[in-house]
Task: structure prediction
Amino acid sequence: MAGVMNLLRMSASVRAFLFMAAFYAMPRLHWKGILLPLRLVEYIAVHELAHLVEAHHTPEFWLLVERALPDCERRRERLAELGAAVEHVL
Result:
């Protein structure tokens, strides 16, 4: 939830853009994500929303993700651990 709160602290124009654009980003989310802990689902959502601002994994992209989720690296590592297990579900 902290990442969402950090997004809410962004300027109104950036926040409005991100939330309006979220409707277009959400198809990128795979249904298996629901099997992950909420903290990782939040990381995935923030990651995908950041792609609306920076298309590639540039340093600016990671700064944007880190701005929303200061512990993004830890969540990314955890996703790498758990993601493989979820990948094998139907």
Q: What stands out?
A: The longest helix spans residues 72-87. The chain has one domain: 2-87. The CA atoms of residues 30 and 44 lie 10 Å apart. The helical segments are 2-8, 12-25, 38-50, 59-68, 72-87.
